[in-house]
Amino acid sequence: MANTAVKAKTSASTSLPSATTSNVEEPTKTLKLEDGLTLYTFYLECLAHGSYMVCHEGNCFIVDPRRDIGIYSKYLQDHNLKLKGVLESHLHADFVSGHMELHKRYGATIFIGEDAGAQFPHYPCGDGEMLLLSSKYAIRAMPTPGHTPGCVTWVVVERATDKAIMAFTGDTLFVGGCGRPDLVGALNPDLTPEVLSKMMFKSLREKILSLPDECLVFPAHGPGSPCGKGISADLSSTIGKEKETNPALQIDDEQKFIEFNTTGLDAAPQYFPSAVMANMKGADDLDREVENVTSLSISEFKAAMGDDVVILDTRNAGPFAAGHIKGALNIPLGLGGGVHLEYEDGNFAIWVGTLIAPKAKVLIIAEEGKGKEAIERLGRIGYAQQIIGNLKSGMKTWIEAGEPVDKFDKITVENADTIRQLQAKGYVIVDTRTSGEYSCVVRGHVKGSINLPLAELPQSCSALDRDKKYVVYCLGGFRSAIAVSLLRQKGFDAVDFVAGYDRGILAKGCEMTTAQPDVCDKAKAAVQEIKQTATKTSAPLYSTSSASSAQPTGKSSESSTQPILNHKKKSRLCAIM
């Protein structure tokens, strides 16, 4: 190994900006090994996203950062750490990354796979290139295409032995699953789910399984992420444990793996392509975008309303039902972070990006004091720029001013007869869970209900009879709250249950069935027609060639200050001083 000097601590002259964002929380988990190697995990539950700071001898790398970088700034400052670089596992589709803001604020080089297609200043890493962390540890780039062609797993290794200690697997290997293969096809038709599944099969077997059993695994996502299926609630694992429990690693036949990897996938949120574009170019400063959104008086808010504007009410379901602006879409803000969400807290930004188009104009209604948080969380998926403004002081001022409101009663399931009584009165019971949840042999579904998954409801509701009345439910009440507001927005007579399926229906002994779904065929046909006529990006954003055409900068403009040294195993060591 090349003998390269490394500074142990940040120099006294280094200036570290303080955190600027409003919500700066503690890391979800801190892992410290005996020799001082430290890993901070920052898990953002509302996006099911994990980012990391791996540190040793006063140096650190940040892996797959979220867009609001205040938490990383805090830890760099509090622990006197020198940021040596930002590691991106790929161009993310489900959130906008903070790599460019970290680059601008700290001068940190962004490292990403050479086939990723990045269009921002970066260092494109090839297979086996080594990034120097400290005198004892380096980080090896290991290409693992499959989720996208440019995915990279970053492996922390001991320099003396090349032993793998931990792997940041991005969207290649999740705990309990692997990355879905169907997101790139909308951007490049040549990269079909079958093509990418073949890449994934090879990556898992030739690269991931080459790591030792004791190697720690830290993925970019946890349960609730739209980037995979069957993801475990565990935030980390080991290669050995995944060998034993992860179905993606237990299929040895390529064709069977392709079938496994291309089926059972929920609909991808519509914001994914726009998030990829933002990450490809590098996003602007989030704080500036948040500050540009103004609070609007009632008269200003009313003047901004229109048929082409979405009124997004981010309050919880109860206050929304008690009084809201007619036509508003209710997606509750819930909690912003933490490692566990209650049923009612949901995935706010993901559902906004699923149901609201990336270019749609949006007006925000929030609980008093929550407007900035709502805007910031929308900025995490690249939606802050399309927000016209938020209603000053929320619905309180609107109601006090005597402005018109719409309201409805939520239904409480009193006993096992409640559902039958509703159906006898002509109500249609709508289950907004996924088709997999609906047909689950363990929980089942309400007998006589129809399955209209929330992600497809804007299209599938066109098949419903407007002369009928509807009662909506989901697992815990979050998705049904969104669904009932969407149905009412479109003119349907719809209400939902106070609690969801588990606590409000099953717990009361209501009749359920595990039979195959009573899915509305007309609704399925409506969704399929929308999918077939959806427009696609004309120019491919991903290249199937090994040399991506989307790298105008080649090696990063900072690479002249980063000597590339020969490695004894013909890889290269990039010493970031």
Characterise this structure.
With about 575 residues, the chain is of the alpha/beta class. The protein folds into three domains: about 30-265, Metallo-beta-lactamase, Chain A, CATH 3.60.15; about 285-400, Oxidized Rhodanese, domain 1 (3-Layer(aba) Sandwich), CATH 3.40.250; about 420-535, Oxidized Rhodanese, domain 1, CATH 3.40.250.10. The strands form six sheets. The chain has an eight-stranded mixed beta sheet with strand order 15-14-11-10-9-8-28-27. Strands 1-2-3-4-5-6-7 form a seven-stranded mixed beta sheet. Strand 27 (about 565) and strand 28 (about 570-575) form a beta hairpin.
Question: What is the alpha-carbon Rg in Å?
Answer: 25 Å
Q: What share of residues are in beta strands?
A: 15-25%
Assign a percent range to the helix content.
Answer: 25-40%
CATH architecture identity of the largest domain: 4-Layer Sandwich
Distance between the termini: 17 Å
Widest β-sheet, arrangement of strands:
15-14-11-10-9-8-28-27
Low-confidence stretches at least 5 residues in length (pLDDT < 50)?
1-23, 533-577
Protein name: Beta-lactamase domain-containing protein
Region (Disordered): 1-27, 541-565
Biased composition (Low complexity): 8-22, 541-553
Domain Rhodanese: 305-407, 423-513
Give a quick summary of the entry:
This protein is α/β, with parallel strands linked by helices and 577 residues long. The chain is globular, with a radius of gyration of 25 Å. Mean pLDDT is 84; it is low at 1-23 and 533-577.
What features would you highlight for this structure?
Oxidized Rhodanese, domain 1; seven-stranded mixed β-sheet; Metallo-beta-lactamase, Chain A; 25% helix; alpha/beta; disordered C terminus; disordered N terminus; 577 residues; eight-stranded mixed β-sheet; 20% strand
